[in-house]
Each structure stands twice: as structure tokens, then as C-alpha cells.
Amino acid sequence: MRCYEMKWAIISDIHSNIEAFEAVMRDISTWRVSRIIHLGDIVGYNANPRECVDLARQEGIQGVHGNHDLAALDLTLSEGFNILAYQAILYTRSQLDESSRRYLERLPFCLILEGEIAFFHGSPENVNTYILNAYQAKRAFNYIMKQLVSVRIAFFGHTHVRRLWHRDKVGKVKSIPIESDMVKLKEDGIYLINPGSVGQPRQRDNRAHYLIFDLSEQTIIFRSIPYDIHKAQEKILKAQLPEFLALRLADGI
């Protein structure tokens, strides 16, 4: 019989958006969670990278690194970025202090908690790999089955879009439609779950997204939190970051 702490908050892709991050943290405070875990990319794109790292550190949030976190430490890792992401990384590097860099340096690629719950940014193989379609989900499940054999539930980020994939005991993989804020997990098979993005959602919903994982009830509760988008946009423009990075926040793209 499993013995779990009750609720965990899972957040991802904060991307230097302190307004969204603070709004999510206020909502999390109402859930009495025992852990908060981030899935990488605390920095990048938006205007407050140092403040977001500081808040994550102050709150004792566990987590893993994302591709933007790594690029902020080593500019050569941004060579494959588009021009908007690259310009934002240059800005991010100029804003981080030594303590922020040390925090990012110490983040692992993957966490495994309670022996069967994994956390990574892109895929279980690579921080830069997306899980967007059935082929990519099957590849991730196959890797988990071979290399992370004890894992039953895996949380990932990177795509900025909520998704829930399930592999049943006979190997069938399907995307489960998220038709309500709460999803009950089955006991059989393996799950891949994306909470969406706190700081740069791309599912045409401009609210900040995260989830609550109730371990004892085996439920996922998806949360969507309004925040001061206008203030975040003003900061992006003041920092002389590309205008599109501000405009996309309002559209959730």
C-alpha cells in the first residue's frame, strides 16, 4: 500500500514572468500542498528572470532544468533557438546574478520521487525534445519502460500546452482529452502529464496554468489563474525585448 503526502503542486515554464508566477503561488497557498515542483525553464522570454529564480529559491521549490535555464548558463546551447528566444536569453544572462546562476547550475535533468513519479523538462531522454504527438509520446513511454522501469507517472513541460498521455498495460498509447479540471488516474499503465505553462501559455488561453496532483486520491486538478498581463507586457517593452513577446501573452500563443 502506498503511503504518500497528500498534494503536490506541479508548475512549468515560468519563463521570467513574475506576475504570473506570483499569481500561481498565491493560488497554490490555498491548497495546502506539501511540495511544489517545477519542470524547468524558470527563465527566458520575459522580463524578470532574477526575480523568478529568487522566488523559486525562497519558496524551497524543487525542480529540474529546462533548455532556457541551460542556455542562460552557456550561450552556445542557444544556437538552435529562434531569434526571439535568442534575444531573450541575451537579456536573461545580463540580469542574472551569481546566486541565480548557482541555483540554475544545481538543477538536475530529472527527479524521481516516491520511487515511481518522474519529473523532466522535454522528454526523459533530452531536455530539448518535445512530446507533442503520439509518436513522440510512444518513444517517451518506451524509454521509461526500459530505463526508468519503476516510473508510473511522469510530468513534463517544454511544449507550454496541457496534455495527458496514457499507455495501458497492453501497450496502447492515447491522448486523453482534458474535458474537466479534474482527471482521475487509472491504476494500470503509465502516464505522461504536462501542466501547461505558468509564464507563456500557448493553448490560446492567456491565464497561467499549473496543476495539483493529489497523490492519495490519484487525481490531477488543472488550474488556470488570471494575472496582470498588462504589467508583464509593459516590463517586456521597457526591457527592450521583442514586442511580439509582449503581444503573445495576451493571446496565449
Summarize the structure.
By secondary structure, this protein is of the alpha/beta class. Helix content is 32%, strand content 20%. α3 crosses α4 (83-95) and α7 packs antiparallel against α8 (243-251).
- CATH fold type: Purple Acid Phosphatase, chain A, domain 2
The tally of strands reads 12
Provide the helix percentage: 25-40%
The CATH architecture is 4-Layer Sandwich
Strand/helix succession: EHEHEHHHEEHEEEEEEEHH
End-to-end CA span: 42 Å
Low-confidence stretches: none
Q: What's the gyration radius in Å?
A: 17 Å
Number of helices: 8
Judged by helices, strands and strand pairing, the structural class is alpha/beta
What's the mean pLDDT score? 96
Cross-sheet strand order for the largest sheet? 3-2-1-11-12-9
Query: So, the CATH homologous superfamily?
Result: Metallo-dependent phosphatases
CATH class: Alpha Beta
- What composes the largest sheet? 6 strands, mixed
Q: How many distinct domains?
A: 1
- The share of residues in extended strands comes to 15-25%
Description:
The protein has 253 residues and is an alpha/beta fold. It has one domain: Metallo-dependent phosphatases (Purple Acid Phosphatase, chain A, domain 2). It is 32% helix and 20% strand. The strands form 2 sheets. A 6-stranded mixed beta sheet has the order 3-2-1-11-12-9. Helix 3 crosses helix 4 and helix 7 packs antiparallel against helix 8. The longest helix has 14 residues, at 134-147.
